[in-house]
Write a structure and sequence with these properties.
Elements: E1 16-26, E2 37-38, E3 45-55, E4 58-66, H1 70-75, H2 79-93, E5 99-101, E6 104-106, E7 112-118, H3 134-147, E8 151-155, H4 168-184, E9 189-192, H5 196-203, E10 209-212, H6 222-229, E11 233-236, H7 250-268, E12 276-279, H8 288-296, E13 309-310, H9 319-322, H10 331-343, E14 348-351, H11 354-367
Parallel strand pairs: 7-8, 7-14, 8-9, 9-10, 10-11, 11-12, 13-14
Antiparallel strand pairs: 1-3, 2-3, 3-4, 5-6
Helix pairs in contact: 3-4, 4-5, 5-6, 10-11
């Protein structure tokens, strides 16, 4: 019996839950077993599921089951577990709704590049490059679009560890002049902010995605404002620093459950799931091992039925492999992570180096 066809036993355990992570990815609807599922309606297919069994918050079993054998496995489950499994698998394969931002439409059937534009003095990689220089910021934004970015993510407050908080007014003073200029060129934008008043000021001028590292939890008005305007939102996971064992996948389940709860909160506030993007929050209160496990297993989050964003560009985890380099010298590591994420069907890559990432994605795709 092949590893793909091993059955997953369901011992008598209370509070059992199954998690389904697509695996065995291919770039065409073929597989050795003769059966594949299309991932999120995009240009990736997969031939198996890594099925993780969790009981009382602990991973107790994990097996890989081929797509060809998944129905037999599901038929072995209780009715309640079957229904939950079908819901998750349906979300994994369902096409993601495209986003419309004014004249721009972002179709989520392939991987897009999101160019980072920080209008801050203290961001970890590019702080100070564009503060008080609107023309330079806008020229960079236009260049990133020409280089292959589908979206420009504008931020006026650094979220690096130890960064000083910025008032609402100061953040608006940094961001709004750039937004005004970008609006003239009709560039598709997202705004990296935790503040409802900042995104509201942007929305008075132009459509934009609300990219909130607090998952709409930092500002009590964010849920209401986001629900009223009907623009897309990005919910990112964050937590206080907490270490996990190097071999443990528990962090995957914890982040999955946390994001699932935030999606439920957003839906209850009137934000439909089809305009929610999720981000596992690489580097935000997580250890090196946490970050590695999340990047390796990012395909698990397709089960939440939302487009995925990954922001690992130039992050500190790369120095573990490359030495203590300056953030701008972490291109190789950033590209390695970006290509892995694309292979896992991640729809949005938030990066600093747009030209190089676009080139890497183009060549990588051509090889397959």
């Amino acid at each position: 019996m092949s590893f793909y066809n091993q059955s997953l036993t369901t011992p008598e355990m209370p509070d059992i839950r199954l998690y389904f992570c697509p695996t065995a990815f291919v770039n065409a609807p073929i597989a050795p077993s003769g059966a594949t599922f299309r991932l999120a309606g995009g240009l990736k297919w997969f031939g198996a599921f890594s099925v993780i069994m969790v009981s009382k918050g602990e991973i107790v079993q994990e097996r890989v089951i081929s797509v060809a054998d998944i129905n037999s496995f599901l038929n072995s489950l209780s009715t309640e577990m079957q229904l939950d499994a079908y819901k998750t698998i349906s979300r994994i394969v369902a096409p993601r709704t495209s986003f419309k931002l004014g004249k721009n439409e972002i179709k989520l059937d392939h991987t897009h590049i999101v160019g980072i534009l920080n209008i801050t003095p203290d961001s970890f990689s590019d702080g100070g490059l564009y503060q008080n220089n609107v023309q330079s910021a806008c020229e960079t934004a236009k260049a990133m679009i020409q280089q292959g970015a589908s979206l420009i993510d504008v931020g006026g407050e650094s979220t690096r560890p130890g960064a000083e908080p910025v008032t609402e007014e100061e953040e608006k003073l940094r961001v709004m002049p750039v937004i005004d200029r970008l609006r003239e060129s009709s560039l598709p934008i997202s705004v990296d902010t935790r503040k409802a008043s900042v995104i509201s000021a942007v929305w008075e001028k132009t459509p934009a995605i609300f990219n909130d590292v607090s998952a709409l939890s930092w500002d009590k008005n964010s849920l209401l404002v986001a629900a009223e305007k009907q623009y897309p939102v990005i919910l990112m996971h964050h937590e206080e620093s907490k270490d996990h064992e190097a071999s443990s996948k528990k962090i995957l389940i914890e982040v999955y459950n946390w994001l699932e709860k935030r999606i439920a909160v957003a839906e209850a506030a009137g934000i439909s799931r089809d305009r929610i993007i999720i981000d596992p929050g690489i580097g935000f209160g997580k250890s090196f091992q946490d970050n590695l496990v999340l990047i390796r297993g990012i395909a698990l989050f397709h089960g939440l039925g939302c487009p995925l964003m990954l922001g690992a560009s130039r992050k500190k985890l790369i120095i573990t492999f490359a030495g203590d380099t300056h953030p701008q010298d972490r291109l190789g590591g950033s590209l390695a992570i970006a290509l892995h994420a694309a292979d896992q069907g991640v729809q949005l890559l938030r990066v600093h180096d747009v030209r190089d990432t676009a080139q890497a994605l183009t060549v990588w795709q051509a090889l397959y």
